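Bug #77: duplicate submission created two jobs. Keeping one. Sequence:
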Amino acid sequence: MKWILEKSIFADNHQRLEKAAADQGHSVIEWNLDWELGDRPPRWQNEAILFHGSLGNAQNVVENFPWQPGAYCKVAAFQCSAWYCDAAQFLVHDAWRKMPLQEFVAHSNEVLDSLDIRDSFFVRPNSPLKPFAGRVLPRRELQLADFDHGFYFDDASIEVVIAPKRIIGKEWRFVVVDGELVTGSEYEANGRSEETTAVPLNVETFAAQVVSSIQAPEAVFIIDVCDCEGDLRLMELNPFSGADLYACDRAKIVESIAQLLC
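Kept job's structure:
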C-alpha cells in the first residue's frame, strides 16, 4: 500500500510513521501542496492509498481524490451529535445541548439555565474538523469573538455543543482498527505533547469496553478517554487521518491497517 504523509503537521514530521511504513515494505509519498491548489493527484490503480496529515486535507481527500480508501475522515460520522447518544453512558457530559453558534450567543442565558449552569461552561464545535478549539468560558454576555469567529472561521451558523464544566485529569488516545484497540498513548492536550509512560491496564480495559459498546464511525478511528473527577470517561472520537498519534506504536498501526486493506 501507499502512505501519503503531510509531514509538516506533526511534531516529528512523520518520521516514525514513515519509518514504520517503509520497514514493512510500503511506499511513502510526501503530500504535494499543489494538490490542495487544484492540481490533479495521481490516479494509482489497484493499490490501497491512505493519507495522514491535517484534518482539512483528510476531508479533501475523502471528498475529491480518486484513492481508496484515501483517508479515514468520514466527517458526518464524527460529529458529536452523531455518536453522543450511543455513547451516553460513557461520556464526560451527563447533559448537553447542540445548536447554531449565533443562536447560542443570542440566547445563552436561557440555554445555560436549561443545563443548570450557574458559572463556567464547556463549549466545542459539533464538527470533528474543529473550526475553533473547545474551551471553558465564564457565564457572561457572549460575543462571537469569544469563539474565534472572524479569525479561524466566518460562518456564525456552525453548530456547537454546550455542556457543564468538568475537571479533566490525565488523557489517553487509542487507535482502533476493525473494532480492536491497536495501540495507545497518554498525552497532554494543551501542549499537544506525548507521554511515554505505559497506559494503565484499567484505562485500556475501559477504552475497549467503549469500543465494543458503540457503533464504529469508521473501520479505523481514534478514541480519547480521560480521568474525569476520579472516573474514567470518554472524551471524544476522532478521524484517524487527521489525528496526532502521540506515542502510539506506529509499527502496530501500519501492520493493522495493512492487514485490513491488503
